[in-house]
Amino acid sequence: MKVLIAGGTGIISSGIVEMCVTKKYEVYALTRGTRVERNVPGATYLYCNLYDINSVKKVLVNLEFDVFVDCQTYSMEQLAIMLEYLSKKCKNLLYLIFLAKR
Predict the structure, then answer these.
(1) pLDDT per position as a tens digit, 39-74
(2) Contact (Cβ atoms closer than 8 angstroms) between residue 65 and residue 2
(3) What pLDDT shows up at residue 98?
(4) Is 76 exposed, middle or buried (0-12, 13-18, 19+ CB in 10 A)?
(5) Angstrom distance (rounded) from CA 50 to CA 57
(6) What's the number of CA atoms in the CB half-sphere (13 Å) around residue 46?
(7) How far is 31 from 16, CA to CA, in rounded Å?
(8) What is the pLDDT of residue 71?
(9) Strand partners, 31
């Protein structure tokens, strides 16, 4: 299984990356690269700005995935952008959504 995880170095997402690597999945994590100390050996880290869809498109240009796990979406606007693009790149989408109250 080929898995793409957004925000792969946070507290929750790094645990998901580690679990997927342990299960022998092919794991890719989209990250800014600011917490490399949380990188999990066996995962591939793709560095981009998750809030800039052109940056995301650039690192995912020739890649497709079985599942996408998003731990990085915090607004409805960002959710709409990511769904539009990643629904074409991934067979299944899983969102862990943390929407801030205004």
Answers:
(1) 899 999 999 988 888 998 999 999 999 998 888 877
(2) yes
(3) 54
(4) exposed
(5) 10
(6) 19
(7) 14
(8) 82
(9) 47
